[in-house]
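Hi W., the S-adenosylmethionine complex you wanted:
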Amino acid sequence: MNRHPGGEAHTEAMLEHVVLPEGAGILDMGAGAGETVRLLRRKGLNARGIDLLPRSSLVERGDLLHTGFPEKCFDAVISQCAFFVSGNVFGALREAHRILKTGGFLLLSDVFTEDPVFRLQSAGFAVLYSENLTGLWREYYLEALWKEDAACSFPRGKVTYWMLIGRRNENGSV
Ligand SMILES: C[S@@+](CC[C@H](N)C(=O)[O-])C[C@H]1O[C@@H](n2cnc3c(N)ncnc32)[C@H](O)[C@@H]1O
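Structure:
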């Protein structure tokens, strides 16, 4: 089961913003039950997923803040609704940046308590696309609450939800 607003359609929408050749390596950070990993593999990508609590055999156990992968080994990283709940958005961005090849893509949808574009830029990414999806997220969250099935606790303060497509800068360092 997808645990992010928009489900598969949202993942497809993210993928429309990037060009990834068949066999490109992509890591789902905070992959949950591996629905996105399954979709990416169907598309011919070499997809892996990690999660602190893997919920299917498609996903390996791993901490997205310290993945243990070598530097610059993935063509793309995707993460949906996981960086914020990790409790360290900047640390997660830094780790994504570290494992991405130069020019590699970051496909991110998540909750932010500050300007997301600035956040990505300050972690060494060029922002190719950003879309405020707070309305979609609110709907998803309220529905989950009624089903007593909320995926994470409701964040306090002013929060917004964004789809962001970033690219690891040529000389991007954090
Ligand atoms: C809201 S769920 C989203 C799961 C999946 N991305 C999806 O959209 O279906 C958030 C996931 O992040 C994972 N997570 C939180 N902190 C993590 C960490 N430090 N390392 C790896 N996974 C983490 C949780 O275990 C959970 O599966």
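Residues 134-146 form the longest helix (13 residues).

W.
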